[in-house]
Amino acid sequence: MKRKISLGIAAVILLFGFLAFKSAGEKYFDIAKSLDIFATLFKEVNALYVDEVEPKKLIQTGIQGMLESLDPYTDYIPEENLEAFSILTTGQYAGIGALIGSINNKSVVTHPYENFPAYRAGLKVGDEFISVDGKNVKGKPTSEISALLKGSPNSDLDLVVDRMGKSISFKIKREKIKISNVVYQGIVDSGIGYIKLDDFTPGAAKEIEEAMISLKKQGVTKLIIDLRDNPGGLLYEAINIVNLFIEKGKEVVATKGKVQDWNKSYTTLNNPADTQIPIVVLTSGGSASASEIVAGALQDYDRAVLIGQKTFGKGLVQTTRPLAYNGQLKVTTAKYYIPSGRCIQALDYAHRKNDGTVEKFSDSMKSAFKTKNGRTVYDGGGLDPDITVSSDLLGSAIIELVRSGLVFDFATKYSNEHAPASNMRTFRLSDADYKQFELWLKDQKFTYSTDLEKQAENLIAAAKTERYYDELQASLTTIQTKIGQNHSVYLSKFKNEIQQILEDEIAFHYSLDRGRAEIALGRDKEIVEAKKILNDPAAYQKLLLPH
């Protein structure tokens, strides 16, 4: 059969590839034996399995399972996925400059990037795709629509969208898209500048420098750099950002791996832009990788105060390697260590439990290190901020409400029915607006179950299983009744939180990243704390000294 490939020959070739790089010994036998077992097993499954087998799909499933057993970052990228991978790492592609998403079974515009074709043409957040170049795409998967929107630079695209029940046609010329890393810059208080960095694709450091120069021309003498929920990106961009604020010739990060070639020290190569400006870096549990290099290096050199929550704890470095048939392997090759000598990797993938789960490094396994000024910092679990600001906890049903897409849909409705506020920093929904949302939500027949209700049901089920129900029935019924009585007023308990979520989404619909950033500036707890510290030089300096 043509479908039956000679895996025995492939295994021998692969084996000799391994032998060229591995030391002789028992490992040779283990590799040969394992490959032989795999080849034989695959041939038998391919020949005998009751239904037809797709060899490529089966092999890729095996590859993914093998790599997932190492860590979440080591991955195989087949040829057909290389374009998406390239966009992710470079932030560049040719198209109209808009993100699309699926909201309540509709494929809609979720983010037209400012100053790119979709934005200039007038596409708005919430517009539903109807046709692309005459092809009906209503209800089609977002991946299919996204592929149609991409094309050669300068090529024309005919687009029809539905906006609040009205069809609108656009003719848009595609162009090369380079998504900005800095999504917002502005002044949050007298002399205090704010820069929101969302990514680390090529040019991130240059964008930070340009934003800082622009803000300084407006009188800024202190700076907030927001790295919250920034998942990281290119290592050299992180190094260049740190270089803006510390002297030439200082180590920013070192990488250490099994292969000698990956043991490297990365130092600042250029003269800094400003070594004196006071800096606050905002962090969250979503700040990872390159974000942690920037925040960690500035903390280790006592060059910035960190405010927010503990960072994610990704201290692993990935390298891409070319494979046969134009595939790529993204493989973890090293761990990185910031200037104090600590590695901030939180999860110990090398020592999994018997069930395959991964645990965090225990406190007993963590080591203490010193910053330049002698402050004590620790490894093995992300970066601890100098000032912790706890994040607001939302009820389970509120999270369910956001995930339902109804907040997005109401924001689409509201932004199309009301003129934008003249100042997004002061935009607030009126009581009448919020009442309108409650009535609209009721019309949408939004239903939810709180975690408390689910736990009560689980408790009753467990009591029946363990044969305690008869003894506990009265108490359990009372608990369930009281919880049920609170169901109708549950959302009202979170009115302030829901209203802020709505206002943030509406601000984004109106003014994209700028709107979302500006509405947050006046009420964001971390920004408020950052302004407080930057406006108190003595308190700022005290935080950078040993306690």
Verbal overview:
- The protein is built from 18 helices and 21 strands.
- Helix content is about 40%, strand content about 20%.
- The N terminus is likely disordered.
- The termini are far apart.
- It has five domains: about 45 residues; about 90 residues, Pdz3 Domain; about 200 residues, 2-enoyl-CoA Hydratase, Chain A, domain 1, CATH 3.90.226; about 90 residues, no CATH class; about 40 residues.
- The strands form six sheets. A six-stranded mixed sheet has the order 10-11-12-15-16-21, sandwiched between helices.
Properties at a glance:
547 residues, alpha+beta, Pdz3 Domain, 2-enoyl-CoA Hydratase, Chain A, domain 1, 5 domains, six-stranded mixed β-sheet, five-stranded antiparallel β-sheet, 18 helices, 40% helix, globular, disordered N terminus
Briefly, what is this?
The chain is of the alpha+beta class and 547 residues long. It has 18 helices and 21 strands.
* CATH class term of the largest domain: Alpha Beta
Number of helices: 18
Please tell me the overall pLDDT.
91
Distance between the termini: 74 Å
The tally of beta strands, per DSSP, is: 21
Supply Rg.
27 Å
